[in-house]
Amino acid sequence: MSANTASPSAPYSAWSLPRLSWRFVPVWRRNFLVWRKLFVERLLTNVVEPLLTIAAFGYGLGSLLPEIDGVSYLQFLASGSIAMSVMYSAKFESLWGAFSRMQIQKTWDAILHTPLAVDDVLLGELVWAASKATFTALCILLMIWLLGIAREPLSLLVLPASFFIALVFAAMALIVNAVARSYDLLSNYFTVVVMPLVFLSGVYFPLSQLPDWLRAVAEWLPMTAAVNLVRPLALGRWPEHLLRDVVLLGIWGAACFAIALALTRRRLLK
Amino acid sequence: MGPMDTAVAPAVLVDEVLAVRELRKVYGGAPVVDGLSFSIRRGECYALLGPNGAGKTTTLRCCLGLTQPDGGTIHLVGEPVPREARRARIRVGVVPQIDNLDPDFTVTENLVVYGRYYGLGDVEMRDRLPRLLEFASLGHKKDARISELSGGMKRRLTLARSLVNDPDLIFMDEPTTGLDPQARHLIWERLKALLARGKTILLTTHFMDEAERLAHRLAVIDHGRMIAQGEPRELIRAYIEPQVLEVYGDGAGDWAQRVGRSLVSRLEVTGETVFCYATDSSRALQALELQPGLRYLHRPANLEDLFLKLTGREMRDES
């Protein structure tokens, strides 16, 4: 007992590797319990918003447009909008949700007084945001089935793909959360970063419409990879560059989570 | 190996629940905690007193492993902190300065969800719940939302929440700040019940009467250093004359300079009040009887006198 106290403990660094463990589960369950209590009112936003997008753009605008890559514009948009809604859902939960738990309600402070560490809290938030986003994907998928826009068994793979994609965007949003001092930064980030990502991702129109240089940039963006994965799956086909898109998203996700964790540790363990 | 090992004294005595040695923490070049050492024995209530910015909260955060010290060692329930802070926190409870109860949950849900962070299953928590609710006198509110609770009820729930893991040591950071007198007395009574059950408490407070009532031992800290440590009564005896006269009213300062000064051993002026400290105050009392324009309060010396003597009377801004 006495021997190890004489030597100074290893220097602490906010940038040390993430220590992932199953201790994140109670954090996930906490958020799930809140969500379950507010289920009905939240369900409405989950369903109505994508339904409006599909109705307005798909049925309205789509009837005026030609087919894209052999599918109707309605199918093109509906399948792509799953990726978009998954991203929005993950971002929203990791921005406004996480920020209010961290900064306003001080829920994270309370958790950090228990045996849990910042790593556990952040992983819990990440997995929770991805879970919630996957539920959103399920809602849209059901709509696409019910409306008969597409009904392929392969489209069930949209769900695991959505979970994976949501992890990436939640991790990215948690970086912003870690440096935000008020809700203002969250809104600015949404307008300045997230919206352009969506327009460059091929949700509303194929990337072939972009100028070459912009298209070259867009191909390395995570939102583009997300659309490339989800759209064919929703329409019952295998993604063309499955491995490339998965690896690209994996790198974005891992890097963003490591940065988010380091910045959050620096903020909370000062 | 070799001389290093044998030269080191045992870092933790068996009955020390918390041992802090030469703790240092520097923010932006300025030391906030500057070589602080103290230890807490099993079953005692130990209070940290100090003005705003004295380093109390930083010390607590270091002890919990939430802030990295720049020097010194900490042993919390026998574990070296920060290295084994997570393991140590399994046996520690915390009542934070600001309530951070979950507003979306009921009273019961707050306790059950918090128990999960300690790995306590819902079945186990169901066994513990009745006692926790009873301890907090919140049995009749167990399904109430947090927004329906009074300030005192929220504090009691926070207190009960800090006990879900049946901790050995409880950190209480200003547990009664912002409560009305009735609610404060109820909290004090609960803390005494905890001490009677053999729990150990580390308390920080601004309220001298709170420290005097609850603490077995206390430390006065300022600028991150310990100025005095001991049992409250002993400390007052050691530093302050036993009798105090607080004189106020028109001409109090004038009277103090002309007459009072020669009758007591020490005078201090705060605002309009003159504090007269004396071993025997009878002569000053007689002199005051001749001054119908002055009002006074005659009382024994208390912890507040000690605190003000040691940390000075000037106002401190909130840090």
**CATH level-two architecture of the largest domain in chain B:** 3-Layer(aba) Sandwich
Subunit arrangement of the protein: heterodimer
Structure summary, number of beta strands of chain A: 0
Query: Largest sheet of chain A, if any?
Result: none
Overall average residue pLDDT of chain B: 90
Distance from N terminus to C terminus of chain B (CA atoms, Å) equals 45 Å
Query: How many domains of chain B, as an integer?
Result: 2
Count of discrete alpha- or pi-helical segments spanning 4 or more residues of chain A: 11
N-to-C terminal Cα separation of chain A, in Å? 28 Å
Pattern of helices and strands of chain A: HHHHHHHHHHH
Compressed to H and E, one letter per element, the order of chain B equals HEEEHEEHEHHHEHEHEEHEHEEHEH
What is the name of the CATH superfamily of the largest domain in chain B? P-loop containing nucleotide triphosphate hydrolases
Largest contact between chains: A-B, 32 and 38 residues
How much helix is in the residues of chain B?
Answer: 25-40%
Structural class of chain B: alpha/beta
Instruction: Characterize the biggest β-sheet of chain B.
Output: 6 strands, mixed
How many β-strand runs of chain B?
14
> Which spans of chain B of ≥5 residues are poorly predicted at pLDDT below 50?
1-10
Measured by DSSP, the beta-strand proportion of chain A falls in under 5%
- Poorly predicted runs of chain A: 1-10
**Overall pLDDT of chain A:** 89
